[in-house]
Amino acid sequence: MTTGRINQVAMALAGARRRTSTTPPLPGGGGGGVPHTRLAVRYGKENGLSQALPLTGNYLGSPMPFRPWMLPRALRTPDKKYNMMVVHTRLNADSLAMVMRQEAVWVTIVREPVAQFESLWEYFKMEKFYKMSLEKFTHQSYEKVARWRLAKVYGIHQMFFDFGYSTAEDMTAERMSHILETLNTTFNLVMVAERYDESLVLLKDLMCWTADDVAYLSINFRSSKSKTTKLSKEARERLLQLSYPDVQIYKFFLHMFDVKVEAFGHSRMEKELAAIQEANRRLTEMCVVEKDSPLKARKGMEWEEVVGKVTVRGDIQKCVDVARTEHDILNEVRERQKLWVVQGWRQPLSQVVVPPR
After folding, report:
1. How far is residue 155's CA from residue 120's CA, in Å, rounded to a whole number?
2. Cα(179)–Cα(185) distance, rounded to whole angstroms?
3. What 8-state DSSP symbol labels residue 71?
4. Alpha carbon 336 to chain centroid distance?
């Protein structure tokens, strides 16, 4: 369900929990990462939550790790604290904590390193940047590729880089262990891309959300037009060696994920998975239409060629929001927040109405 990189962004969700009498919120924590960006942005939009956003696009800082000064005045809240931070950035936990509310919950996601890099390579057409095949890339030295990044951002061991680290030269086992423990104490939840629905169950429980809050359509699958790179077994092993930090991160948090699932309870997990699958079914039934349907949504559906998509109806806002591009929904959220600031924060953000364009 995921394409391109799994971005480590501050999905710090202060005020994004739904407090209920049956499910009390867990204690807040601190520090940054992204599960399904559109899902979180959609929730914030529907509930009128302030979001830490760049003035344009979906990336704060590049390639510098996050700093508070990166947040534009035109989108600032009165106290310079935000309910949510779900756009892409490099992790700087101390700086992120300065702009998030104290009760923020911090979430990230990890993905199997080889699958992630193959997808990254294809999505950003990195063969053109490196001027070599992926197979040949795996023969390069670590010292060379560690600092050779597309736009100074995208490259080898992307998770390690997005967590705020640069290279792993002279990395000792003790140092890697310290990094993993630091990340483990930073995040309330580390989701696993290969176990996405189980991850959503844990996110739903952590945030006191409903199954409908985390329902999704399978949009980010690779399209039939995309070119899939076939790696030899030897090249895969070389890529794993080049990706050493990400291999350790994935291995560690896959184990921690198993621990959380075990604590959650297998029978309870099965019931929650069934609830999400049913919510997905309802969403699909309500939203998905044929490609030639006169009801189909058009604006905001301009996906990249390497990404497949579904066709949804445009007369139901929720259907549009679950399928539109990340940039499109962020632009809407940004315009509303900008207007809120211009109006001097006189009314709740949820009541601000942006004039149609």
Report:
1. 8
2. 10
3. S
4. 22
Q: Which two tokens stand for residue 103?
A: 């009760």
Torsion of CA 24, 37, 54, 183, to 10 degrees: 70
More confident call, 162 vs 16: 162
| Res. 222 pLDDT band, cuts 50 70 90 | low
> Is there a contact between 119 and 126 (Cβ–Cβ < 8 Å)?
no
Closest CA relative to residue 194, chosen from 109, 256, 264: 109
Confidence of residue 21 (pLDDT cuts 50, 70, 90): very low
Helix residue spans in the chain (DSSP H): 37-46, 93-99, 113-123, 126-130, 134-137, 142-145, 158-162, 173-186, 196-207, 233-242, 244-264, 266-287, 317-323, 326-342
pLDDT of residue 103: 87
Q: How far is CA 271 from the centre of its chain?
A: 25
- Find the mean pLDDT for residues 191-219: 94
